[in-house]
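Dear Dr. V.,

Thank you for agreeing to look over these. As mentioned in my earlier message, I'm a first-year student in the group and I'm still getting used to reading structure tokens, so any feedback on how I've presented them would be very welcome. I ran two proteins. I've put each sequence directly above its structure. The first is here:
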Amino acid sequence: MTSPLPTPTWQELRQFIESFIQERLQGKLDKLHPDEDDKRQTLLATHRREAWLADAARRVGQLQLVTHTLKPIHPDARGSNLHSLPQAPGQPGLAGSHELGDRLVSDVVGNAAALDVFKFLSLQYQGKNLLNWLTEDSAEAVQALSDNAEQAREWRQAFIGITAVKGAPASHSLAKQLYFPLPGSGYHLLAPLFPTSLVHHVHALLREARFGDAGIEAALVTPHGEGLLRSPLLGRFNLSNLLAAVGALLGLGYPLGDILRTLPQLQGPVGRMQRLGGGDKPLVVVDYAHTPDALEKVLEALRPHAAARLLCLFGCGGDRDAGKRPLMAAIAERLADGVLVTDDNPRTEASAAIIADIRKGFAAADKVTFLPSRGEAIAHLIASAAVDDVVLLAGKGHEDYQEIDGVRHPFSDIEQAERALAAWEVPHA
């Protein structure tokens, strides 16, 4: 079994960042004439680490990114280098079809300084780019940015802000899927914005939306008629996904009534916001969220569905980034009404050591329940839930094992939750 790479120290990451900045500086200095001393001094000043990062945090918003292959996009959308397919279907002026060029990097546009930020966030260190390190809220990566903790957090927010939707879509120029191109042939989805201009009309005509343990219900008014959108899926992001599907299907000529009758049948992937229970029992949600960013997003997505308390169970894997453990604790404490910390996959690391790291992130650890046995923890939390509560089981999702001391034992959050929900009926019936 391959040993995991050790978590880099902030000093190592800082040196890595400074090497990149110095490389960019040297390339510019080499182009200067000997008599351009003023420009030389300016470059030296602007390429100090803190000065360069401050400017990069400002310029990151200037990057204009690309659309995903074959995603429909309004022909008037601007900001990306697009290649139209000769056989692109669709009504003129409504929807076209575009694909990326062979070299994804060529589809990132912006001024030279902004493109330097793109290269900076793309830097690979121990198998992950800097954007990934910052998105996972690695304490070492954040500290590497600045000795001033507040400044470092502010810059982190600016850099990872490229992955967040900014406000409500309101124009054709936003009718695109945004991706962050990676070296080679890969890409990372940044902001799941609506893929057609028609979806903007659908979204704008959303009269109201309700979130509950039954899922999503929304009154929809479109140029093609009115109707009630119902779905067992959870979270506002899934409402946006459903609206995107409605808009695309309407654009292809499918009747609104047929679309709305089909939506309740759509199910999400196993272990990703998977719902169990509900109705006359607590709603239990099993999700794979095992990073600070993912845990934050799933808790925020579930909050509108909780008529009463939002309860969270999570743990952290062993032999992995220990810096995220207290960060996940702080997020769970801030966003959930009750928290239970348990084992995830301890692997070869001692469970007690992992939980001790997590405990450091709680402001009021005395209000948190710590129960290492994950099966017992799931049973305990669901048994303590009321009928209107929502229970999140985070971290393992679809996995059908738990790795302890290097051995994978059969274990499923889904099966454990189903068993606990069946037992819940006895004391609560």
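The second protein is here, in the same arrangement:
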Amino acid sequence: MITVLEPSAHCVYQRDCEGAADIPFAVRISSEFGGTIEARLLAEDGEAIGRAIVNREGTLSTGIREETLVTARLERVSVGTREGIWIAGGFERVPTGSYRMELFVRDGEVERESLCVEAVHVGDLWVLAGQSNMEGCGKLVGVEQPEDGICCYYMGDRWGIAEEPLHWFNESLDPVHWRVPEEELGTTVVCERRNRSIGAGLGLAFAKEVRRHEGVPVGLIVCAYGGSSMADWGPVRMDESGSTLYGALLRRVRKLGGRVKGCLWYQGEAEANERDAPLYAERLRTWVASLREDLRDSALPFVYAQLSTVHFMDANSSWWNAVQEEQRLAEEALAPAAMVPTVDATLSDIIHVGTESMKEIGRRMAWQALRIAYGRQAYETGPRPGVMRWNEERTLLRLEIEGAHGKLHDSDRVYGFSVEADDVPVPVKAAVSQDGRSIELRFEEPVSAVGLLRHGAGFNPTVNVADSKGIPLPVFGPLEI
């Protein structure tokens, strides 16, 4: 009997800068035989592009037309072990694409057994990390549908087609993710698989949008954990890998070869308080720097979300807005990085983004990944506050908007802006300029003192400034005017 140890169906191997990756194979045969084992690698059209034939003495031969041959290698043949015969090798420099691997056991001309591993991909791996809005807490209604070539490395260290929900904590090999005591894992997993109705996230929409533009298979490595703080994500010693979020992330990435295309991050809700908000920016910079160092990629692309709205009744939203502003300012310090605004999202409960908005945020993250990781010049950052200019009377302030796709949505009444001068609110009306490139803020009386401008202040602001792709102006402020 033949058992395939590697590759797994629906796995994705991270390609290098030249668009190629090695695809390993490892098989075990449970009984003695005197023939050969053949591994074939076939493209989607059925053309065999690589072949390895191994006999029991450990001799390797290769074939197929020279112009299409992918070089095979043999690493180990163990004959006569109690488990049978072990063979490990691989195909080198396999181009970007989707393949299947066929394995045959033969005694002379007699084929004893065969096996096929479908959907083995060379493409790009993206890490999904953060807290519950990266985990996905949308209702499982109207979810993004699965697609060939979009795969997920689930928390049980298994590959599969990516389908909602992506995160299954109690199936993780790392105890840090378990939500119940170890002795309750079995019954809890069965119950969750039968009854779960929440868990739609952004990852699948992200991957599908990247694949639509780049034509490359995408694998998602899911690592998020609801309620986690920056302290919970702190870099740790590798001997603590199973008991810490960061260690679990590194263990899983290294198990897959140690290289990824980039990281998606949605976190910060846990930092929106008096104790942690002042430390957020430095903690985020440290975390990203540690990830890049540990993955040996100083230019690892980092795409992250700005906090969305929340239905809190607390009157003091200052710490929530403070984290949002630190996230806005972090793009340059974290480069190559991109922030995705989410202030226009609808929620599925008091704090979690709903399913439709999750899909939209996933696409926005993909557009930014296309810009910073794939070099697609057609994509901008999305609207950002730029230069501000007063008229001579200081009754009209023109705020230039940078990074927008096309013009801003036409609106003669713009919501979300607020101004203070000497700690007193100043009445202001805002509108999109005629050229669609700026916001005009009009005041009833001249603003003589230095003022503070905010956009999207509060827990649940009404905002409507967006560019032609529907990307909103992020929460920002206070900015001096």
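From my reading of the second output: The chain is about 20% helix and 35% strand. The mean pLDDT is 92. Does that match how you would interpret it?

Kind regards,
E.
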